[in-house]
Design a protein that fits this description.
13 strands; 3-stranded antiparallel sheet; mainly alpha
């Protein structure tokens, strides 16, 4: 196992390169500078990471900036903001809101402060804007004041929904049960390729016609695992890919062939977590080492980032998934 230097270098890069002047995490950075927008997903990921680090100062900074720039007066969180004027896109995103709740829940569990007001607020926000009291929905669009008529299966973070049920069982029991059932009733697919969503209006599971996005597929697998479902087919497919092709690609065709040869730190970070949860340390550590291979060397001004050595391109999503994996799999700091 590699020691915590990788975690610390990655944390330093996050604060040095992916924060803007107001400590909002921006979507990506390269040698030309920061992207022109940020997403609440990044703030939630970083808050969760800070909670796992038990770093109250950093956590409280992120929480304050999330409320300042992403929270609409109506009570929901924008999924995306403009990095120049901080104008928010008036749409929520279930998965981002669940991340924010999870972060507060973990921080409270780790005795980092009194977050009772925040937990109550975010719980109510998700309940009001992302659900109908029975089922969870992908988003709320404030412009039309309507919810989506479907839910992405990779949005159904059962780990967070477990926490919501533990926080308020009476309010969340039915939502928790229905979310579990939506995941558990996914029809088994060859290679462990899952549908991307469930359409409430059509009452059926929906697949992405263009192929299998492995980040989304791995999130669905992790959600299925946390709903006590079977992820064996995907684990078997990934083991074969590693043995045969020495990689897990970003995209696959439905027949199991590679659609896009590119790889990413996020795919390997999520795969490492799934292998680790299934007590497969051999392949978990193989994926773990692949994540570290994406970390840019210290000799670069982008040293510590999980991205492309030549261009310095680092996406906040990949950076934060790598850092979360280092905490979850390796148990650094425990």
């Amino acid at each position: 196992m590699v020691n915590s230097v990788d975690d610390e270098r990655g944390f330093i890069f996050l604060k040095k390169k992916l924060h803007d002047q107001n400590d909002v995490i921006i979507y990506s950075v390269n040698q030309q500078g920061l992207a022109d927008y940020g997403v609440s997903e990044s703030m939630g990921q970083a808050m969760e990471y800070a909670a796992l680090r038990k770093d109250r100062q950093y956590f409280d900074l992120l929480a304050a900036q999330t409320d300042k720039y992403y929270l609409d007066r109506a009570g929901y969180y924008y999924w995306k903001i403009n990095a120049e004027n901080y104008a928010g896109e008036q749409i929520s995103a279930l998965v981002d809101d669940l991340r924010i709740f999870k972060a507060y829940y973990l921080a409270a569990q780790n005795n980092m402060g009194d977050y009772s007001k925040q937990l109550a607020y975010v719980s109510e926000s998700i309940y009001k804007f992302d659900s109908d009291g029975k089922y969870l929905y992908d988003f709320y669009d404030d412009r039309s004041q309507q919810k989506a008529d479907y839910v992405s299966l990779f949005y159904l973070d059962m780990n967070s929904i477990d926490m919501l049920k533990a926080y308020d069982k009476q309010k969340w029991q039915e939502l928790w049960q229905n979310s579990r059932e939506l995941l558990q009733k996914i029809e088994k697919r060859e290679y462990g390729f899952y549908p991307v969503a469930f359409s409430y209006s059509e009452k059926k599971y929906v697949s992405n016609e263009t192929g299998i996005n492995m980040v989304e597929n791995l999130y669905t697998a992790l959600n299925l695992y946390n709903a006590d479902g079977d992820t064996g087919s995907l684990l078997k497919f990934m083991r074969e890919e590693i043995k045969t092709n020495k990689k897990i690609a970003n995209w696959y065709n439905f027949d199991g062939s590679v659609k896009d040869e590119n790889e990413s730190a996020a795919v390997y970070a999520l795969a490492a977590r799934l292998f680790w949860l299934n007590n497969d340390s051999k392949y978990a550590l193989w994926c773990y080492s692949k994540v570290l291979a994406f970390q840019i060397e210290d000799v670069s001004d982008f040293g510590g980032g999980f991205g492309d050595q030549d261009s310095g391109m680092v996406y906040a999503f990949d950076q934060l998934e790598a850092l979360l994996m280092l905490r979850m799999v390796q148990g650094i700091g425990e």
